[in-house]
Amino acid sequence: MDKAVIKTTKLTKFYGKSRGVENLSLEVNEGEVFGFLGPNGAGKSTTIKLLLNFINPSSGSASIFGFDPTKESIEIQEKIGYLPGEIHMYEDLTGKDHLRFQAQLRPSTSWKYVEELSKKLKVDLNKKIKSLSHGNKQKVALISAFMHKPELIILDEPTTGLDPLIQQEFYNLVEEVNRSGTTFFISSHILPEVERICHRVAIIREGRLVVTEEIVNLKKGALRPLEVIFSENITKTDFQTITGIKDIEVNGNILRCKVVGSLDTFIKKLGNYTVESIITQEPDLEQIFLKFYKGDN
Amino acid sequence: MPVILIQALKFQKKSFMFWTIGIVLLIALYMALYPSIKESAAELNAYMEKMPEALRNAFIDEETNYASPLGYISSEIYTQMLPLLFIFFAIGFGSNAIAGEEEKGTLDIVLSAPIRRSRFIIEKFLALIVSLGFLSVLIVLCLFFGSKFVGIDVTVNQLTNATFNLFLLSLNFGAFAFFIGSLTGSKGLSIGLATAFAVLSFFVSAFYKLVDQLDKIKDFSPFFHYSDQSALIHGINWASATLLIWAIIGLFLLSIAAFSKRDLNV
Ligand SMILES: Nc1ncnc2c1ncn2[C@@H]1O[C@H](COP(=O)(O)OP(=O)(O)O)[C@@H](O)[C@H]1O
Ligand SMILES: [Mg+2]
Predict the structure, then answer these.
(1) Is A106 in contact with B114 (Cβ distance < 8 A)?
(2) Is the distance from the beta carbon of residue A18 to the nearest atom of ligand 1 less than 6 Å?
(3) pLDDT at A284
(4) B209 and chain A: CB distance < 8 Å anywhere?
């Protein structure tokens, strides 16, 4: 199962003197949904263009399904679907004609599946591209990334411009297609999105890889906010010794704090008191994410 | 299936329609003017007749003789109006083919599919050839029937010769625009350089007899090879035509080389 579908080794691209991406080494395994997270200008699109052989690396290399994009891009492109970060289409064609044209370039396309996808994403394929809203163009482009049932789907910021309901529909689609074995490489600058659909994430900042980690492990390192109401007043010092506890605030019989990782010692400590209620939330990755973004890890 | 070629031609449907209407009207106009031009040209010719034999021969032959029907078609239509139209079309098409798509950002539609860049170039270039071929056939038909209508005696064979020459001339500039577009991805640069090349080439062919420096470079001027003899009257000069064909093949191969490895602006 852990076969690398994408592998980059010190992949580097400079546009003249300006940095695109630098020394990027990562592996994406077969069957996983891999998130590629970073702020605008981090080098996400550059990396994807290198994988697709639209641009040549300055140094380093990449391999997709064991093929070298600079020499064997046809073998690679037979197995992939792609959604560009900036979508430009033939404005005078209808969605249907556009997809027909692309289907001719990708013979494994089944038209029935195209229709299924267009229903799922709620887009009218009979309208001309130029009359479609940004979100609807995005949907047509999404269909073309999925329609030939490729083994690997590379999506560059797929949800920009989609309204929330359709985003949900899109997340479901990714899950469903992934269940049938398709590998995904999804770039995004939106953390909750990556958290929602990806198994693993690479965080990239200013062209460099900051960390590659499983979402569940990231969550282990994330702070879980907790609020506990006791039946009697408590003091701060009672709780300071608990492992992984942070940001303790005590207000009479109310304790607010954050806990990293396992809650086990915290819960056991609560056993010594009478507890009225506990409120907690999913640990979110925001802090971790911001930490990596700011670069103070 | 040449999917890209077919799609490129489909995109031209509207443009083909306008060009067809334009060409039909223009040739109708030229044909309608012929009878009156013939009259005034006859007077001019009568005047020329009075000139000494040697001087007269220096001024006129059948090609510049407007009163001669073939002379009219050759000098009015094939040396002025049609080259201008065809080159305009060819440069537009050639610069649009690669650079136009690159600037619009639509290259990735085709190139993210398993399509070699060389195949993309080949089919796009074929689309240029087919489009110019379409216009050429249209010209032959219009001129043939138009001539019939005003009583000019010209054969399909003669028109085909002249139009084939015109096709090669315009394809040269179209291929040049195509090459610059493939190399740089800039439509403006492609149109600009190709137009400059066409204008220069025209001047070289017009003035090389007067200016020594131009005489030295005349072989690089497609116009020189186009106009060294009237294909309508004397048939195709195959030595010149072959040179034009080699230039086209050269530019085509250069386009493949330029496009197949460079960074694309997608
Ligand atoms: N064609 C280009 N020429 C010069 N610089 C570029 C080009 N494309 C991208 N860059 C630069 O490379 C960096 C990474 O860009 P990009 O990969 O598009 O980032 P992202 O997709 O993560 O927003 C940016 O600083 C951007 O300005
Ligand atoms: Mg981007």
Answers:
(1) yes
(2) yes
(3) 64
(4) no
Task: Extract the tokens encoding A24.
Answer: 């990027």
Q: Does residue A88 register a pLDDT over 80?
A: yes
Question: Is the distance from the beta carbon of residue A84 to the nearest atom of ligand 1 less than 6 Å?
Answer: no
A281 C-alpha vs ligand 1 centroid, how far in Å?
A: 37
Whether B142 is covered by a domain: the verdict is yes
Structure tokens at A171: 């997340």
Nearest to A143 by CA among A176, A193, A96: A96
Q: Per-residue pLDDT for B39 more than 80?
A: no
Please, which pLDDT band fits residue A297 given cuts at 50, 70 and 90?
Answer: very low
**The whole model's pTM is what?**
0.88
Buried/exposed A106-119: b ≥16 CB within 10 Å, e otherwise: beebeeeebeebbe
Which of A90, A91, A100, A148 is the best residue to mutate to test the B interface, defined by the most B CB atoms within 10 Å of its own CB? A90
> Strand ranges (DSSP E) for chain A?
4-15, 18-29, 33-37, 59-64, 80-83, 152-156, 183-188, 200-205, 208-214, 223-230, 245-251, 254-260, 275-280
Q: Whose CA is nearest to atom 5 of ligand 1?
A: A15
Question: Does residue B187 lie within any of the structural domains?
Answer: yes
> In whole angstroms, how far apart are CA B214 and each of B205, B207, B223?
8, 7, 13
What is the predicted ipTM?
0.86
Minimal CA separation from A69 to chain B, in Å: 12
C-alpha A91 – ligand 2 centre gap (Å)? 22
CA–CA separation, A256 vs B41, rounded Å? 104
Structural domain harbouring B85: 3-261
Smallest Cβ–Cβ distance between B264 and the set A54, A78, A80 belongs to A54
- What mean pLDDT is predicted for residues A197-215? 92
- Asked if B115 reaches chain A (Cβ–Cβ under 8 Å), the answer is yes
pLDDT value at residue A213: 86
Closest CA to B194 of B123, B266, B119, B99: B99
Res. A17: pLDDT tops 60: yes
- Identify the CA nearest to B228 among candidates B259, B247, B254, B206: B206
Q: Which residues of B227-264 are buried (b: 16+ CB within 10 A; e: fewer)?
A: beebbbbeebbeebbebbeebbeebbebbbebbeeeeb
Q: Is A186 helix (H, G, I), strand (E, B) or coil?
A: strand
Question: B206-221 in b/e burial notation, b at 16+ Cβ within 10 A?
Answer: eebeeeeebeeebeeb
Residue B75's pLDDT is what? Answer: 78
Atom 4 of ligand 1: nearest residue by CA position: A15
Residue found by looking up tokens 């084939």 in the block: B164
- For chain B, what is the domain count? 1
- Residue to probe by mutation, ligand 1, list A44, A46, A190, most atoms within 8 Å of CB: A46
In a domain, B266, yes or no: no
Residue-level pLDDT at B7:
96
- Across the interface, of A88, A89, A105, the residue whose CB is closest to B113 is A105
The partner residue sitting opposite B113, judged by closest CB among A75, A89, A102, is A102
Tell me whether residue B239 is in a domain.
yes
